[in-house]
Write a structure and sequence with these properties.
Elements lengths: L35 E3 L11 E7 L2 E7 L2 H5 L19 H15 L9 E5 L5 H8 L4 E6 L2 H15 L18 E6 L15 H4 L14 E5 L8 H11 L6 E7 L9 H11 L2 E9 L7 E8 L1
Parallel strand pairs: 4-5, 4-7, 5-6, 7-8
Antiparallel strand pairs: 1-6, 2-3, 8-10, 9-10
Length: about 300
Amino acid sequence: MESEKPSFEPFRLFSSSGSGFLEQSEPPLPPPPPCVEVLPSEILPSVKYAVEPVQLGGLTLLKGRVSTQEVFTLSNSDLVPGKYEGGLKLWEGSLDLVKALSSEVQNGHLSFTGKRVLELGCGHGLPGIFACLKGAAAIHFQDFNAEVLQCLTIPNVNSNVPSFQPPALQVTKCDAGTEIRFFAGNWREIHKLLPYVQNIEKDFNVSTGKSLDAQYDIILMAETVYSISALPHLYELIKKCITPSHGVVYMAAKKHYFGVGGGTRRFLSIVEKDGVLASSMVAEVADGSSNVREVWKLSFK
């Protein structure tokens, strides 16, 4: 029997009605939605949520499927910068990241036990859910759209957490007592809401290394580096959020997002120029289904 393949959407640069070519320069974006914390009780029951298993090697996670048309009145192939950033689709990089994290844990290179974890641009939230399953003390999910959290991320977490788990589905259980919270907003402003963030100018000095070490221990992100204009804001947010003494960032994305100019190498050029973080490749995926995908690890030098 042929093994079941995970259901995901490949990166689409254009909507179904797009004309084709997109230049490197990006058009001005509309004002972003406000930054808010989304409570687990704020699920939108009017949106149809269908759950299905995703097989990732020896690990089974549960994911939802919802209609972009129903949530945002957009066709299912649309990604509208500044309005909807594709959070309802399951991207390849999310699966790559979970597999890489699983390998890192098995090899003894990574432990989530007792750690504070932040998943940026979470969408389905599978990497953050994996962190919960592996004993994270706190996992905070961030997405651009509150609707993504309400219709997909929170239901996905509920489907994988024991107290909300349907009895007929067998999945790995999340440790009880994990602090799970959800935050919506753009990367320029979201640090004002996130609990484990310091004022980098006030509380952290790169030259002395002095810090209260109260930030996140691990930051996870998949398919977040496709937009050139967003890369500097993402990088500055990471530096505000990550604990200087031992924090690590795991990033999964395509090497290049052709047509828009983003990608892992474009982001890593910003990292290298700044000179504060060191980077190392964890995995490379070249399976022919898309352009080359990579998983990278970042940490303070």
